Predict the structure of LptF/LptG family permease.
Amino acid sequence: MQLKIWNSYAIKETLKVFILFILCFYSLYVLIDFSLHMHAFQQNRATISALIAYYSYSFSYRAEILIPFALLLASIKVLSTMNANNEIVALLVAGVPLKKVMQPFLLLAIAFCALLYFNLEFFLPSHAIKLEQFEETYLHGVTNRAPTKVHVFPLPDDSTLVYQKYDFAQEAFFDAYWIRPNKEIWRAKYLFPHTEKPIGLFVDRLVHNSAGQIERTESLAEHLFSDLHIDEKLFIASVIPAEYQPISQLWHAYQNTSDQLNDREIQLVTTLFKKITLPLLALLVVVCSFPFCLNFERNKHPFALYSLAIFSLVALYTLLSATTILAENRIVHPAIAMWAPLFLCTSCFGWKYLKLR
């Protein structure tokens, strides 16, 4: 019964501090982001409900960073306070081993790991697309993005769809070229693929003349592409950015890849292993920080502990970003690129946990 009371107390106190850190961190982010984009919101008449939805989706998008940080600081705060109040000493005197003391914190870490995986699989794919739609509607021309490159979408009938970008706000391809096997080319400023039959706006028909040159033979304000068939699953796998796809979809794409990965496949595989790896940080921060909180020396330095923990987690995220670039450029395999930093961090900090009794 006493052990159950202790578990409940540790979980409750950790959740209190965790929620406090989450509210503080995310409120500060919302305040800074809103101040930066306030003019664009006013100019495009963004409603309060749209802003609430936007920042709700943003939390889902950034949860994989916010939750490990908040859990790290909450665990250190609760463990350090209990250590300072000699509550951990009392548990040890009562015959509770240190690894038993850690059980409630591990349960919380596992629960948050599962929550992050659930978010990546079910919430983030739709929320990320809605974020894109909001930004293209209310922040168009404000966000600083790299120039858009040309994208190629092969179709099952051996034709090819070449487009500049996919407009999430209008759910349409922008500046699209449908290249058919008979050398006929259709150009549309906007091509809507999700209607019963794809519809193009401001359409030009281009053909090869007898001299081998491409000439425009027809211009239409609107055209129904009855022969253009776009499979929904193929569309998601080929058009939707890899970071917006659920883990199950990425895993399916990974199983269908060949030995020689193209640019699209290497990005999908890298994103897959990254999404598998990042939620594990919620468990890693608790395991690695726990032994450092059990400092029974007279002169304790909590500021140094917080500083070391925050610096280590920031360094780990930076290292993961660097290894992601290496994986996308085929310098190392994506699995090694993602798991090597975790193994390095566990080797540096996690060995103390193995020595606990």
About this structure: The CA atoms of residues 161 and 178 lie 5 Å apart. Residues 2-43 form the longest helix (42 residues). The two ends are 22 Å apart (CA to CA). DSSP finds eleven helices and six strands in the chain.
